[in-house]
C-alpha cells in the first residue's frame, strides 16, 4: 500500500506533459486509473471502496472521462470523505454540480486560463464575420460560380460595416471576455459595454474605457453586437430568449462562444428570419453536436464546431493545470495545504462546515 495520497484518474492517459507528470505529479501521488465505462458500475465501485480513500479526482481531457454522466447529488454522495479536489480540463462545468461538491468540502477546479487566448481570438473572428458578412462571402466563393461571385462581391459592400465605433455588449466579464474586450477595443476600435453580476475594478474599466450596466436588459438595448461569455447553469439556460432579442437594436448582431443553451435557438431563428437580428455567429449549439438545419441554411450565420478553445496550446495547458491544481491543494498525507489555482466553487466551498 502506497503511503502517498491517491489520485483517481478518469478518462484517457495524459498526452503532453510527460516530464511534469513523472517528475512532479507521479512522485507525489499514487495514481489509479478508473476502469469503469458506465455510471452504474462506477457507483458500485465507489460504494465498495474499490479505489480506497482517494484524495483527488483528475480528469486531464474534457472529451474523455465523462462515462458516468452528470456529477449530481447522487453520484457525489458516494465519494469518500477523503476527497479534497476535482481537477478537470476544460473551461465549462455544466456537467458537474460544483455547489454540491463545495458543500462536501471538495474544491472544483477547471482549466480556466488555458483557453483564454484561443476563445477570445475565436470570438474576435466572429465579431468581424457578423459585421463584414464573411460567411456569406465564403459560401459564394465556394460555389465556384462567376455570376454568384460577382453578385455577392457587389452585395457585400452594401450591407457590411467596419466594427470601429460600434458598441460591443459583453455579457459576463471574466478572463476570456476581458481579453476579447481588449482586442476589440485596441484592434477594432469598438466601444466596450458590459454586464456582470460583479463589476470590474475601476482600473480595468479605465483601461478599456468600458461602460458597466447593472442589468442585462440595459446592456442589450445599447449594444450593436452582443457577445456571450457566461457558464451554463439554471440561471443562464435560455438567457437570451424572445424577450431579450426584442430588447436588442434592430439590425444588431449576436456572438456565442459560451454554451449553446444560453441562447434559445427558436427565438434566435425567428429574430434572424424577421431581420431584427442581422447576423449571428455560433461556436456552440443548443443540441450539440447536432447543428440546427435552419441556422445552417442561413448565409448570415457563421457556424463552427465548438473550436473556440481548440488549439494545441489549450490542450497542453488544460492537462498541466489540472495536475498543478491538485498539487496546490493536497498535501503529503492527503490533507488540505492550500487552494487551487483556478477554483470554480469558492463560495459554496467556503460556506460549507
UniProtKB/TrEMBL annotation:
Single Gene Ontology MF annotation: hydroxypyruvate reductase [NAD(P)H] activity
Quick check: keyword Manganese in the entry?
no
Q: Which SUPFAM superfamilies match?
A: Formate/glycerate dehydrogenase catalytic domain-like, NAD(P)-binding Rossmann-fold domains
Presence of keyword Oxidoreductase = yes
**The organism's place on the tree of life at top rank:** Eukaryota
Q: Write one Pfam family the protein is assigned to.
A: 2-Hacid_dh_C
Q: Which CDD domains match?
A: Mand_dh_like
| InterPro entries given in the database record | D-isomer_2-hydroxyacid_DH, D-isomer_DH_CS, D-isomer_DH_NAD-bd, NAD(P)-bd_dom_sf
* Any one annotated GO CC term: cytosol
Q: Where is the D-isomer specific 2-hydroxyacid dehydrogenase NAD-binding domain?
A: 126-308
Keyword annotations = Oxidoreductase
What the entry lists under PANTHER family is as follows:
2-HYDROXYACID DEHYDROGENASE-RELATED, D-ISOMER SPECIFIC 2-HYDROXYACID DEHYDROGENASE NAD-BINDING DOMAIN-CONTAINING PROTEIN-RELATED
Q: This protein is called what? A: D-isomer specific 2-hydroxyacid dehydrogenase NAD-binding domain-containing protein
Protein source organism = Penicillium malachiteum
Amino acid at each position: 500500500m502506497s503511503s502517498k495520497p491517491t489520485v483517481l484518474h478518469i478518462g484517457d492517459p495524459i498526452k503532453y506533459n510527460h516530464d511534469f507528470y513523472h517528475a512532479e505529479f507521479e512522485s507525489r501521488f499514487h495514481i489509479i486509473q478508473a476502469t469503469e465505462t458506465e455510471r452504474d458500475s462506477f457507483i458500485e465501485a465507489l460504494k465498495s471502496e474499490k479505489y480506497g480513500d482517494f484524495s483527488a479526482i483528475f480528469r486531464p481531457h474534457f472529451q474523455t472521462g465523462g462515462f458516468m454522466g452528470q456529477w449530481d447529488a447522487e453520484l457525489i454522495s458516494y465519494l469518500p470523505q477523503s476527497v479534497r479536489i476535482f481537477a478537470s480540463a476544460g473551461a465549462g462545468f455544466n456537467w458537474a454540480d460544483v455547489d454540491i461538491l463545495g458543500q462536501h468540502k471538495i474544491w472544483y477546479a477547471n482549466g480556466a486560463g488555458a483557453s483564454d487566448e484561443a476563445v477570445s481570438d475565436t470570438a474576435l473572428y466572429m465579431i468581424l464575420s457578423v459585421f463584414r458578412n464573411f460567411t456569406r462571402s465564403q459560401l459564394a466563393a465556394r460555389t465556384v460560380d462567376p455570376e454568384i461571385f460577382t453578385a455577392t462581391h457587389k452585395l457585400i459592400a452594401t450591407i457590411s460595416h467596419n466594427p470601429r465605433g460600434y458598441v460591443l455588449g459583453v455579457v459576463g466579464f471574466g478572463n476570456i471576455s476581458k481579453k476579447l474586450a481588449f482586442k476589440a477595443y485596441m484592434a477594432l476600435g469598438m466601444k466596450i459595454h458590459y454586464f456582470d453580476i460583479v463589476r470590474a475594478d475601476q482600473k480595468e474599466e479605465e483601461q478599456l474605457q468600458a461602460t458597466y450596466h447593472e442589468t442585462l436588459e440595459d446592456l442589450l438595448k445599447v449594444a450593436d453586437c452582443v457577445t456571450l461569455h457566461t457558464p451554463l447553469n439554471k440561471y443562464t439556460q435560455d438567457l437570451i430568449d424572445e424577450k431579450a432579442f426584442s430588447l436588442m437594436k434592430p439590425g444588431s448582431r449576436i456572438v456565442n462562444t459560451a454554451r449553446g443553451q444560453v441562447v434559445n435557438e427558436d427565438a434566435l431563428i425567428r429574430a434572424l428570419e424577421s431581420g431584427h437580428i442581422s447576423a449571428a455567429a455560433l461556436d456552440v449549439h443548443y443540441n450539440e453536436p447536432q447543428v440546427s438545419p435552419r441556422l445552417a441554411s442561413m448565409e448570415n450565420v457563421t457556424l463552427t464546431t465548438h473550436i473556440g478553445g481548440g488549439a494545441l496550446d489549450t490542450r497542453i495547458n488544460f492537462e498541466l493545470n489540472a495536475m498543478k491544481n491538485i498539487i496546490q491543494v493536497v498535501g503529503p498525507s492527503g490533507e488540505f495545504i492550500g487552494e487551487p489555482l483556478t477554483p470554480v466553487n469558492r463560495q459554496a466551498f467556503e460556506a460549507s462546515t
